Each structure stands twice: as structure tokens, then as C-alpha cells.
Automatic annotation (TrEMBL):
Binding residue positions for [2Fe-2S] cluster: 74, 79, 115, 119
Annotated cofactor note: Binds 1 [2Fe-2S] cluster.
Cofactor: [2Fe-2S] cluster
Species this chain originates from: Sporotomaculum syntrophicum
Keyword terms, alphabetized: 2Fe-2S, Iron, Iron-sulfur, Metal-binding, Oxidoreductase
Gene Ontology molecular functions: 2 iron, 2 sulfur cluster binding; metal ion binding; oxidoreductase activity
Lineage of the organism: Bacteria, Bacillati, Bacillota, Clostridia, Eubacteriales
Protein name as annotated: NADH-quinone oxidoreductase subunit E
UniProt record similarity statement: Belongs to the complex I 24 kDa subunit family.
EC number: 1.6.5.11
Length: 148
């Protein structure tokens, strides 16, 4: 695993480099560890408050620690009508957390999201951005077992 410093420095001369650097760090660590902000501030010549502001502006960036597997449950109308609520409850029960939380072992984060463009086969979840369609609460244990 590359260090945060190495990842951020690789983008120092690029226009909009701070956002690209954040993407790259999040890709490797699944979130932006605190050190990312201080390293980005010094690398891109902005205050830590500004660097933090960028990190928290975009919903796809997270400064909260997240799990190895990020499960996102679509809660837009078509998925909602198709049973998203029951699916969310099944994941919450199976993982022992509520949406927005990460399991204590750091393996899973459960999040809600807007439409992920798979409305032809609702309800839909994604795990690390891979969609799983036509989901039902009964499929939850099998889907979690795929995450090793
Ligand atoms: S509404 Fe859920 S994928 Fe589109």
C-alpha cells in the first residue's frame, strides 16, 4: 500500500490535483485518513481548513473511516417501491449496524445512495461500486459471504 504522502505528491503539479489526489487516496484506503488533509494542504499550498472543505464538499469523498466493503443501498423511488426498506433492514440485522455505520472489524460500511442507474432490475445495491440487482432480503447472507 502506497503512503498517503506518495499518493498526494504524485498530483502536485496537476490542475485540480487536490481532488484527484483525494480520489487516489480514497481508492487505496476507502476513505480519507486525517493525514490526507495535512499532506494535501502543504502540497497544494492551501490552509488545512480549505483542504478539509474540499474533502467534505463532495459526497463521494469520505473523511469517516469506512470498511473494506462499502455496501450502498439505492433508496430512490423505483428501488424504494420494490422493497429497498426491507433490504436495508436485512443488511442492518445481518451486520449489526445501521446505515451510515461501519462494522467494528472494519469489514463493512453500509450506506444509502440515490439511483445507481440500474432501475430495470430493482431493488439494487452496490458493493464497492459493483451492482447487484433484483435483490431480496433472503439473498443478503449469500451476498455478504461473497465478501472475503
Ligand atoms: S432507483 Fe434504484 S437503481 Fe435506479
Amino acid at each position: 500500500m502506497s503512503t498517503i504522502q506518495d499518493i498526494v505528491l504524485a498530483f502536485r503539479d496537476k490542475p485540480g490535483g487536490i481532488i484527484e489526489a483525494y480520489h487516489a487516496v480514497q481508492k487505496e484506503y476507502n476513505y480519507l485518513p486525517e493525514e490526507t488533509i495535512t499532506v494535501a494542504a502543504s502540497t497544494f499550498g492551501v490552509s488545512e481548513a480549505q483542504a478539509y472543505g474540499v474533502a467534505t464538499f463532495y459526497s463521494y469523498l469520505s473523511v469517516e473511516k469506512r470498511g473494506k466493503y462499502i455496501i450502498r443501498m439505492c433508496e430512490s423511488a423505483p428501488c424504494h417501491v420494490a422493497g429497498a426498506e426491507a433490504l436495508i433492514k436485512a443488511f442492518e440485522a445481518a451486520l449489526g449496524i445501521v446505515a451510515g455505520e461501519t462494522t467494528a472489524d472494519g469489514k463493512f460500511t453500509l450506506e444509502l445512495t440515490e439511483c445507481v442507474g440500474q432501475c430495470q432490475a430493482t431493488p439494487v445495491i452496490t458493493i464497492n461500486n459493483v451492482p447487484y440487482v433484483n435483490m431480496s432480503p433472503e439473498q443478503v447472507p449469500a451476498v455478504l459471504a461473497l465478501c472475503q
